[in-house]
Automatic annotation (TrEMBL):
The keyword DNA-binding does not apply. Residues 48-338 form the D-isomer specific 2-hydroxyacid dehydrogenase catalytic domain. This is 2-hydroxyacid dehydrogenase. Residues 127-306 form the D-isomer specific 2-hydroxyacid dehydrogenase NAD-binding domain. The lineage of its organism: Bacteria, Bacillati, Actinomycetota, Actinomycetes, Kitasatosporales.
Length: 347
């Protein structure tokens, strides 16, 4: 069987190849394709919204392949139509957003994904953003490098806040949210969670308090977003929801830009209504030069780096290789995106 390892400069082809060899041995032919992300931004390709490379180079690389393991390759209707031998695509992301799933299903191609591949990395980064915003770490660093000693941050009015004893609200309680909650509890925080898909009894067993979203926003001095972006959660935190926050609350978004309405944020920060904001994701990526939050006070920003650890890349390769192994052996996929086609295309 021929397998294409369509990697990039994060989940590299050699990592995918090594994971496939570990899973499958040397019995199958593995070819490689290197896509340009992250040295070139991902974006729309054909009829998919988050992909890297071109349809043409992918079609050429897929010649004769029955399986592809990838992170960013653009699996569009055009690609599926040009590759009739393809039977399975394993995507090393939290969702197969670079795959036209309807087209794959019509063509009888099984698709899998890799939930949880970056959960430890994203959880740690969220905690880092939280601490940076609460304690002005990045602001103090930038000022000191400019030669300004901000001893005035010791003034009561300028002082930071602690996680110990704080009430922290997590919007979303999946794989990432659960790790964040565990770390927060170790700091001594009381953790509220709002997630309609979470079993409240299981949440309480974890030591967190499940509540409705509005209650979470009213009670939390710190709020961190960890929900998936769907049509239902787009602008889940809008101007009306932001108004529920306590005076001076800290808001962190390291999940998806579309969860948050960014328009009210500059005014809320300048008025002090919102105490601090920490962001790793944006409504437009990268934000434009005239983005209003660039000069708003008490803002911590990072360029969508929450999942950027070497361990994430290795986990992503291992999860997709394991799915390819299950497919080759005729086993049920662990993370199918279109389970209705799996039986029809098993070897």
């Amino acid at each position: 069987m021929r397998i294409l390892a369509a990697g990039d400069h994060f989940v590299r082809p050699d990592l995918l190849r090594a994971a496939l060899r570990e899973e499958l041995g040397a019995a199958h032919e593995i070819t490689e394709l290197t896509l340009p992300w992250p040295h070139e931004p991902f974006g729309p390709v054909g009829d998919v919204h988050e992909a890297s490379g071109t349809e043409e180079e992918l079609v050429e690389a897929l010649d004769g392949a029955e399986i592809c393991v990838t992170q960013m390759a653009p699996f569009t209707e055009k690609v599926f139509a040009a590759c009739p031998r393809l039977r399975m695509v394993a995507v090393s992301r939290g969702g197969p957003v670079n795959v036209d799933l309807a087209a794959a299903t019509r063509r009888g191609v099984a698709v899998s994904f890799a939930p949880g591949r970056n959960a430890p990395a994203a959880a740690e980064f969220a905690i880092g953003l939280m601490l940076a915003a609460m304690r002005r770490i990045t602001t103090a660093d930038a000022e000191l490098k400019r030669g300004k000693w901000r001893g005035d941050f010791y003034a009561y009015e300028e002082g930071g806040i602690e996680l110990d004893g704080a009430t922290v609200g997590l919007v979303g309680y999946g794989a990432i949210g659960r790790i964040v909650a565990r770390v927060l509890r170790a700091f001594g925080a009381h953790v509220l969670v709002a997630d309609p898909y979470t079993d409240p009894h299981a949440a309480r067993a974890d030591g967190v308090e499940p509540v409705a979203l509005d209650e979470l926003l009213r009670r939390s001095g710190v709020v961190s977003l960890h929900a998936r972006l769907t049509p239902e959660t787009h602008h889940l935190i809008d101007a009306a929801k932001l108004d529920l926050l306590p005076e001076g609350a800290v808001l962190v978004n390291s999940a998806r830009g579309g969860l948050l309405d960014y328009a009210p944020l500059p005014g809320l920060l300048r008025s002090g209504r919102l105490g601090a904001l920490a962001l790793d994701v944006y409504d437009v990526e990268p934000p434009p030069a005239d983005w209003p939050l660039h000069d708003a006070p008490n803002v911590v920003t990072a360029p969508h780096l929450a999942g950027a650890t070497r361990q994430t890349a290795h986990r992503a390769a291992a999860i997709t290789a394991a799915e390819a192994g299950r497919f080759v052996r005729g086993d049920e996929l662990a993370h199918p995106a279109n389970p209705e086609v799996q039986e029809a295309v098993r070897p």
